[in-house]
Amino acid sequence: MNKYTQYKAEVAGTGMHVPKKVLTNFDLEKTLDTSDEWIRTRTGIRERRIAGEGESSSTLAAQAGNQALNSAGVAPEEVDLIIVCTSTPDILFPSTACFVQKEIGAVNAAAYDISAVCSGFVFGLSIAEQYLKSGRYRYVLVIGSETNSRIVDWTDRSTCILFGDGAGAALLKRTESAGSGGLLSSHIYSDGGKSDLIIVPGGIGKTGVSCKSVEAGDYFIKMLGNATFKVAVKRMVEVSQEALEFNGFTHKDVDLVVPHQANRRIMDVVTEKLGIPADRIFINIDKYGNTSAASIPIALHEAWGEGRIAPGNLVLLPVIGAGLTWGAALIRW
Ligand code: COA
Question: Does domain 8-175 match CATH 3.30.479.30?
Fold first, then answer.
């Protein structure tokens, strides 16, 4: 606990929801010049979930959010703030968070979206941390939710194989109890100079929506995969070391790394460079692909559910995303 603050923020509950529809690498082989073997060895992905009719970032988010509230035993009316981290909002506005608020009945909550792409959840945690540690709010629901399948070009084999849909949530609670637990710190960064690495260039406020840009595929994800890979490793290692040093820990103190599930090889290289053994990384990219802002909260929920996180464990959450954005949070569970 930071000695200058009276309160701390703790994870009180987690939840997740993914669409039922599974798209395997073998399914992709039927429509793309790719193979299960290529995708598995280059990325670690075997399958991903795809939103169906009637499903959107808000519907997935509401289910994940409800589950987080249930697991914490907290009523929706008690939630002070809902932050939905998404780069695939249902519509331009109102925010996806407002739809979630309505759906879960969190009538007393303020609700808004943040856009930090894959880094969204850690950015969201850092916002929740400020509201809770300052004493302003008691419960903040942070949800990462994405329907990436709606913004990938299904003819571009270098991007569409990577992404999937889903939502993950964590309910953060303000506590006054003494002790060393809770969200210890969060560290977030951006570099707009690298915006071209991963981008959906289609304009809204810049050019307006036009048939020309739709036809040109400007509303699909464009990515420089190789360059992104290199900077992802560098930044995730750097910021993880910063989070550990800030709290007086070393890599040896980490019980579990729950990294952004962007690519299995990125996660392996990052943890290897940090000196953290492979059995202390949680990986579920094989089942879901890269679900952007949803990836860490989904992984956190599964890691906890599978007993990979025990009370008292030190959990490191490193992340990288378009922007460029990156960050890390450190939690004493
Ligand atoms: N199936 C088969 N071949 C493919 C393919 C696919 N799905 N996608 C690309 N290839 C081909 C390329 O065309 C290229 O062929 P060439 O050598 O004939 O030109 C070859 O595979 C190697 O491409 P390259 O881009 O160098 O592969 P890579 O090892 O870098 O893997 C990524 C590509 C996208 C998997 C990898 O760069 C990556 O994961 N980068 C990080 C992306 C990321 O995580 N973004 C989100 C961050 S939040």
Answer: no
Return the ligand 1 atom nearest residue 34 CA: 1
Q: Which residues contact 50 (CB under 8 A, 6 or more apart)?
A: 19, 21, 22, 23, 149, 164, 165
Q: Which residues of 86-106 are buried (b: 16+ CB within 10 A; e: fewer)?
A: bbbbbeeeebbbbbbbebbeb
Q: pLDDT grade, residue 1 (50/70/90)?
A: very low
Whether the pLDDT of residue 314 is over 80: the answer is: yes
Determine the pLDDT at residue 4: 46
Task: Report the nearest atom of ligand 1 relative to the CA of 260.
Answer: 48
Rounded distance from Cα 188 to ligand 1 centre (Å): 27
The residue from 17, 25, 98, 260 that is catalytic is 260
Q: Provide mean pLDDT across the span 252-276.
A: 97
DSSP string, 110-141: EEEEE--GGGHHHHHHHHHHHHHHTTS-SEEE
pLDDT digits (tens, 9 = 90+) for 183-199: 999 999 999 999 999 99
pLDDT tens readout for residues 195-220: 999 999 998 888 898 899 999 999 99
What CATH number does the domain located at 182-332 have?
3.40.47.10
Same fold, 8-175 and 182-332: yes
Q: Where are the domains positioned within the chain?
A: 8-175, 182-332
What does the pLDDT read at residue 177? 67
